[in-house]
Design a protein that fits this description.
The chain has 233 residues and is mainly beta. Helix content is 12%, strand content 39%.
Amino acid sequence: MCGYIEINGQSADPIMWQPELSLFDDLIPKTFKRYYPAFGQDSERTIDIIIEEQGQLKSVAATWWYDCVDSPQGLQVGPRTTFNARNLASPYWQPALNQRRAVVIATGLGESKRVGKTKHQYYMQSAQPFVLGALYQKFADNKYSCAVITRDAHPKMQPYHDHAFPGFLPANADFLRLWLAKDVQHHAQITDVLAHPTLYPSLVVQRVKSYKDKQAMKSFQPVILQSDILAAG
């Protein structure tokens, strides 16, 4: 499960220290933003996603809860828990996986794990931006909803969340163009990335009281989760 995401775009080096992400230069916020799923059926809880429309990349604010419907009162959040998309073989997700893929650019995220009767929250931060896969749908009046992709549990993440793993994507310009291309429904590279969950960024993990204030729990020493790519090299 991925239930908190943030982006720190305040670096003096605007694009974010990652040359491969230069294709998103004008689309990533240059401020600090934090995102939470639309619990409580709050359609105003949005996350910035990057999509392709009419051959152009664009950033849109999407309600972070895929199950939404149009109504006279605006976008309404449905009851199905869909801020994450995991079982991508399901007919529920297949249309979006084939034609409505998106990305989220982030520098931090939150995971949690229940230990006994206590919910432990872990804040994970990267020194460089990373990319998460997402699926979206579009409604009237240019409104959107989305889900962040998750995959099977990853050994490095299991101490902090043992049921799922954020759907990291490689920060590779060619792959990201392929991922976002609306005219590409199936591709071996996409299938391979989704089938082999990989920790592309290195993350510093700290247990916190809450994601918002990030007050560290003194009983927990920060841990560095090294990128699978660096480890393999």
